[in-house]
Amino acid sequence: MNGAAGARTLRIQIPSVADFRDAGPWFTEGPAMLCAVSPESTVLAASRAAAGALGRTPQELEGAAFWTLYHPDDRPAACAAHAEALQTPGTDVHRALRRLRADGGVLWVNETLRALEGTGGAVVLVHTVDGAAGEHPREREERYALALEGASEGLWDLDLQAGRVYPSARLNELLGYDGGGAGEDPLEWLARVHPEDVRNVRAAIDALRNGERAYVESVHRMRHRDGSWRWVHVRGVAVRGEDGRAVRVAGSLSDVTERKVAEELLLHNALHDGLTGLPNRTLLLDRVGLALRRGPRLSRTCAVLCVGLDGFKVVNDSLGRELGDLLLDAVARRLESALRSADTVARLGADVFAVLVDELRDPAEARAVAERVHEALAQPFALQGHSVFATASIGIAGGGGGAAADALVRDAETAMYRAKSRGRARSEMFDATMQAAALARLHLETDLRGAVERQEFELAYQPVVVLADGRMAGFEALARWRHPVRGLLQPGEFIPAAEETGLIVPIGRWVLREACRQMREWNRRYGAALSVNVNLSPRQFGDPGLVADVADALRETELPAAFLKLEITENLLMADAAGAGATLEELKALGVDLCIDDFGTGYSSLSYLHRFPIDTLKVDRSFIARLGGDEQSEQIVRTILVLARTLGLRAVAEGVETAEQAASLRAMGCEYAQGFRFSHPVAGDAAGALIWRQRLSA
User: Taking Cα atoms as reference points, which of 132, 169, 178 lies closest to residue 151?
Assistant: First the structure.
């Protein structure tokens, strides 16, 4: 039986440390070199093999202090291993040490120590004899000395009776005393400990000396000979005399300065923004929580300002990300200079900062801080030869009433979004209505994600007619959401949220395929040649997979490309003319028609029309609604129609609701129209019925 097996058997069969000799012949007579040691370092029992290796009998070992069985230089390490085993019951601790034989010789052994559970804390030592046959002990000792010299740790021995410290050469070297001279006075060594750490070091040594602890470990700072402070990791164990009193403390010292610096850097990076060096959200929440807890004791409160830069994306897109980063850093510095040193400026996200204003008498005082922020950002930023202006939308949330830190920051963000929705460079104070709106929006977004998975969407179809005779030329497909609780929702109730969350891309992909499928089915069933208009949102138009999605929809549904008309708003077209032009060319190469929706309400884009492969202009309904009562609107519509004919484009009037509007448009030469005058958007079955009736009347 080997030693490891013996140790496992011991843990199972021995319920206490009363008498290990009763464990059976396997312990005392087996081949394993076993020794049982009490938590107080007394040998309880030893196997005949272990005692014989030392030239002794088991009875001679029983009752002895186990550390007396080791070479004097190895006793600190033996005690440290024993203490470590006691601290980690059930875990093996390995050491290679020198045992003393009865004849004065030295025996190198590999030892495994384990404190056994359920035995009152006894430590069992399992050892095997190490070394090549015939090797002289002196050679082993020399090898051991060389190993110590090459070790990265420094060793020390504090003689409590003599009041002297014996450092190893490596320890002297670690502290800059390569040629010696570090001294042997314990007070001199203690004086090298950093003033902030010396109290804890004294307490640890006293606890070890008084028997309160068997093992000490400390990480603290010590002064190097060059005057710098080094972080050191010190381990030590007491060597006790026969009366149990500590006579020596021996251990090791490692220089862990690089590790501590790395740890501090990691901690800093975990709590600070990498670009600006400002506290990040985690550190801000910690400080907000502290301010909320401290406020009631001081009869004060606090507030959080969420500062979101307006139009930052334009800076990134026009001047580049590098200049955008410079602007963010410059904004951070300006915010710091405009606020009190006690206030915390943090960066929450790409272009969003936060300010914690502490010790306010009233949360309303935070409005004055917001005004200071607006004033601080009013002056232009000089960045690599560019003069850049930055404004911010600010949300303000006041603490108090048992508010939580994360809730306070969230409320400030909610107020910031309200400010952004109302224009640039505004401030908004958070109130309960915002919270209700934010909660409703959260529920909507959650439901919307489920709707995409459950395919709760359906299409309504509004006819596009030929004004001359009222015949249908096609349909515009319009998305609806069949909400399981709220019923049928119109696009305005969910499309903005879908656009903001990015869910518009999968929704738009479904709309595209379903519209193509339905139109292909109707054209086959009724022998018609009708087209279908599908709107592309800004997020969908910017999606890299758009062209592939359109191609896949046409291929899978077998709808001829000429029957698909894609609508893009004028504003979307001009926001990124170069990128939009490239996408339109790729779409046009598929054979589809391209329409500009809501034409006349966006940028002055007339000079750009000839650059894009546009087929149709859809005149915005706001102009159509004023026909007959507004001469200016009538002139605008007439101009758009002339422009379309000049460029060879079709024109479609949107929002036609009256016979007078239809007649006026016919008189102007408008060819196509859609609106309530002809039909409201209808479900698929009703749209199919409209096609069937037109087919019968043909």
Answer: 169
pLDDT at 207: 83
CA 671 to chain centre: 56
Q: What are the helix and strand counts (H, E) for the chain?
A: 26, 27
Picking from 84, 81, 85, 47, the residue whose alpha carbon sits closest to that of residue 67 is 81
Cβ proximity of 239 and 246 under 8 Å: yes
CA angle 301, 303, 304 (to 5 degrees): 155
Task: Return d(Cα 81, Cα 94) in angstroms, integer.
Answer: 8
Residue 553: what pLDDT?
A: 96
The partner residues of 106 in beta bridges, in order of sequence, read: 100
Angle at which helix 631-647 crosses helix 659-668, to 10 degrees, equals: 50
Q: Which residues of 187-215 are buried (b: 16+ CB within 10 A; e: fewer)?
A: eebeebbeeebeeebeebbeebbeeebbb
For the segment 615-669, what is each residue's pLDDT rounded down to a tens digit?
Answer: 999 998 888 988 877 788 888 899 889 988 988 999 999 999 999 999 999 999 9
What tokens appear for 636 in the block? 């605008």
Give the 3-state secondary structure of residue 190.
helix
The pTM score is 0.50
Torsion angle of alpha carbons 181, 183, 189, 194, nearest 10°? -20
- Which backbone phi and psi does 172 adopt, to 5 degrees? -55, -40
Mean pLDDT of 272-286: 90
Q: Which residue has the tokens 């899978």?
A: 556
Residue 450's SS3 state is: helix
| Band of pLDDT at residue 403, cut at 50, 70 and 90 | confident
* CB contact at 8 A, 310 and 427: no
DSSP reduced 3-state for 616: strand
Cα distance between residue 20 and residue 187, in whole Å: 45
**Residue 401 CB neighbour total at 10 angstroms:** 7
DSSP track, 7-53: HHHHHHH--SSS-GGGG-HHHHTSSS-EEEE-TTSBEEEE-HHHHHH
Q: How far apart are CA 301 and CA 292, in angstroms?
A: 7
Residues 50, 28 contacting (CB under 8 angstroms) = no
Q: In the 8-state DSSP scheme, what is residue 89?
A: T
**Dihedral (Cα; 576, 577, 581, 584), 10-degree rounding:** 60
pLDDT digits (tens, 9 = 90+) for 90-99: 777 888 888 8
CA distance 589 to 552: 14
Long-range contacts of 8-11, Cβ-Cβ distance < 8 Å, separation of 24 or more: 10/34, 10/36, 10/116, 10/119, 10/124, 11/116, 11/117, 11/118, 11/119
First to last CA, the chain: 102
Distance CA 146, CA 214 (A): 29
Residues written for the chain: 698
Interatomic CA distance for residues 359 and 355, integer angstroms:
13
